Amino acid sequence: MPPAIAAAGITAAASIGGGIASSNATKKAANKAAAAQTAADQAAIAEQQRQYNTTRSDLMPWQTSGSAAQDQINALLGISTPVQKTTNWAAYVQGNPDALANWNSLTPAQKAQFNNDMGQFGSYHYSQDGSRRDLSAYQTTTGGQADQQGAIDALKASPLYQSLFSNGENTLLANASATGGLRGGNTENSLANFGRDTLSTVIQNQLQNLTGVSSAGQNAAAQTGTLGANSANAISNLLSNSGTANANAALASGAANAGAINSIVGTIGGLAGNKDVTSWAGKLF
Fold this sequence. Notes:
The protein is an all-alpha fold. The chain contains nine helices and two strands; from the N terminus they run H-E-H-H-H-H-E-H-H-H-H. It has a two-stranded antiparallel ribbon. Helix 1 (3-77) packs antiparallel against helix 8 (185-272). Mean pLDDT is 78; it is low at 4-9 and 280-285.
């Protein structure tokens, strides 16, 4: 092979090798940069999630208290829902001698049909013989006025109300005794009015206190929602950054491949245009 041809081949090989090496280096750098960006974004996402979970956990006691306070407000105002009745069917059986006798007369196999549950049998018994039965003694109503009455009764039984009423009653009786009107109608009216007024005051104070707790819970829920929205936006941006980094890496790899191919094609084209190479190749064929 003539020296000029050998030199051209060496030059072409070096050019092609250099192009491929450069392409590989570019691709590796692009992929490494994308991996670093993705790792950083994933770490940031994990920190966002950790902080959100921590803050949400910190705010949860206020949310729980606020929700419980709102339930009590609804009960005191008589607007708690749903309003529903539940029947204690086992008590129904025990409260009706004929139903209880029917239950006791069942064989084990027959009781098994009701899963050995007296309540299930009671429901069945009522469906078969319910026209003359009064269920009110075995029913419990919840929601609405039933919850309202329960909430008021609970306040009347509370230490706060009992203390206020007892102290006020003793004061009224002491004054009446001192003035000789202990058994008068005015004293009885004063005691009755005092009881109503005390209960009304306790209810209003309770509603005010519960409203404060409920508001704190509402604020905690709002803060949690805002934190969640901000965290979601931040995580979305970080994911977008990772996507952009990986997309740029893919584009860089494509550009590097294209550059290497163009370099190879250009080198081959240069060889084809070399007069010495062309002349020598023509002698071979």
